[in-house]
Amino acid sequence: MVKADLQGYDTHGTFRLRQYVDRLRDGGTNPRPDIRVVKETPGTALVDGDNGLGHLPMLFATELAIKKARSRGIGWAGIRNGNHAGPAAIYVTLPVEHDMIGLYAAVGSANHVPPFGGMDLLLGTNPLAIAVPAGESPPFVLDMATTVAAVGKIKTLAQRGEMMPEGWMVGRDGKPLTDPARREEGLLLPIGGPKGYGLAMAIGLLAGTLNGAAFGSDVVDFTKDTKTATNTGQFIAAISVEAFAEVDTFKAQVDTVFKEMRESAPLPGHDPVRIPGEGRGAIKDDRETRGIPFHPNLVKTLNDIAGELQIAELAG
pTM for the complete prediction? Predict the structure, then answer.
């Protein structure tokens, strides 16, 4: 969680502690999971997270995928009986450290999205992440929800008492919904309309159904229900660059592509072109030096948790 905050993923870091603690307290999450491989081939593995905190089986699966990619060129690990695991970028950047490409997707931890043209909430934000190593440049890191906005951003705005932009959600009357406190009344919109819906479906089938994990009406809202196992599904793949190309040559070519993108003339009124993931390093450096900024409402929540658990509050 701290690593997420350090890199600027505020909606998926310490902000989530309230949910994790509630589920541990109420029995919805197993505090001592037996994480194990239940099915395996030389290049693939199915990992059972035993309903532990999602970060634990995700790290286990990522390390296993990297190990398999070293000998097979690619390693793919699916997870069942997992839980919310924080930002996808944390996991896809681990293969990058081994000159590998990282690929991750997950079934969202609650359904907030209807199928395109429908009204029933049967899909989550179903995130997708890809990381690609570069040479002198920081790696390419795409970490995105298949919805216009991630639910964590909406919850963060609600906690801060701020409004949502139009286009994130609509009410059941089809009109824009901008009050994050009323998010339960509305429908979260997929990116690109039917294209985002199709992408969310594909991710659900690969990360959920293929692994024997929840998808569709089986998904448990891990915020509302703190007692039921979620059986969250994810997958992580590590792809060895060396299996396809000479590593240094590939990285140099990636740097060239980045340079071309950055040098593209910006449209009037737009900032210069950036590469996905660019800027996270600067955020990390700043926060490691000056500390992680917490909104006063988040500080209050964390101190409330500390009081409940009879541990020290955050220093003032």
Answer: 0.92
